[in-house]
Amino acid sequence: MLFTRARPRQPRRRAPTGARRRAVGAAAGCALAALAAPGPAALAQEGGTSAARLDAFAERYVERTGLPGAAVAVTKGDEAVLTAGYGRASDGAPLTADSPMRIASLSKSFTALAVMQLVEAGEVELDRPVRRYLPEFRIADPRGARITVRHLLDQSSGMSDQTLPDASRPRRPDSLKEAVARLRAAGLSADPGSEWNYHNPNYHVAARLVEEVSGRPFGAYMSRKVLAPAGMDDTVALETAGAPSPGLEDGFVRAYGADIAVPEPDHFSAGSGGMVSTAEDMARWLVLQQRGGLSAAGERVVSAESVAEMHTPSSRDGRYALGWMRREPEEGDRARLPQIWHGGALSTYSSYQFLVPETGYGVAVLLNTGIALTEEDAWGLAEGLLALAEGRTPPEGGSSLWKVDAVFGALTVATAALGVRGLLRSGAWAQRRRRRPLWRAAARLLVYLVPAALLAAFQPAVDFLLGGRDGTWLQRFYAIPAELSFLAFAAFTCLAIAAARVTALVRSRRW
Hints:
By secondary structure, this protein is an alpha+beta fold. The chain is built from 17 helices and 11 strands. Helix 12 packs parallel to helix 17 (481-510).
């Protein structure tokens, strides 16, 4: 198997990224041809395309969408067709194929593999209750005794963000043991196995199970038993989403046409979303999946039967498998084939991975920007790379974020101007109403409470629209900074006007 190997890490400096990326693409194409592997020419004959064209498309996509940076891996069977980086990190250095990136919920597929290793060793059975292996797992609902290991991995345990709002709890756990212990206060929103609910603590419990059964800390187990055999030497499993890691820079929040580097809000994510990886390592991960658990170096990490189990949906929603999901093409869409996939989103990083079993293609995209309301950049870049590889016309990609931010920026400026006007005219407003019934004046002021009411209702409304998914105010703000800034500013301005007019009205009636 051939990997497009990144250059040794050099001292960080600013460099013209376009020339570097073109060089990476050209070098990849030349190396593939020189080794007579089934590279660009063969891919073109199979409906694929060259590494250079994939590289050019990814570079153009990043530029058109205004993304600060992305790293991608495209594989075919046991071959890495392209691994490359585009744009920059928050310290100004160019991103490369070996730049560390947070991979968010892609971490779940790694945790599932660790559990499957224990299943193969005869130490765990998927359809046995979790308590058989992890006696400390207790929840308030007695139905919790029926939760199986499979229920954790396919997110059908019955636990959910509605019964345990994990993200917004004031204090995060300090260890997997503590994360499991705090579930004692949790209830269930459904019978185990009867309903699918995406809930990160399912994977906290799964990671703790790995610790208990193996006798090793989760991170150490992952390093020794999963990552090292897979050849993923630059990948680490961290306990929290914002934990530091060597070479890892802050990601970005996008607002008002600018990319703003900010630290990732820290929350507990061991087993569910705490891993850091690179495009090079993600290529190895995709190849391992396509080779039925065999690493690029030929080492058996997990059996082909276990890989098939992880890729096969078992939850009631018919889509979620064990750390992976399955997507069927829409009816009448003959251009697409079934995909095995998973996405991940933090506030400052996002990711996407998928496999196409029928063609052997795999794609992973890592972005140093988080989720945004109007954008699906990780999915769009991954789908575009696949379309080009399969000989279809890929979408060019574009961004409407700047338009949305421009509208809300203009509304914020207009609100400021009207707010100043309203404050300055408070005295005149009160004079006109000094002899009128107070209830009429109060009724006129009610409209100024609307923005504050909307702001107060924002968090529960978003939770409802996201199917009950829990989140903090900071996470919501990072996703839609322009919109929330406008709403908060409008609420503050309207309350200030209302207070000024009430004060002026009281004074006018004293005279």
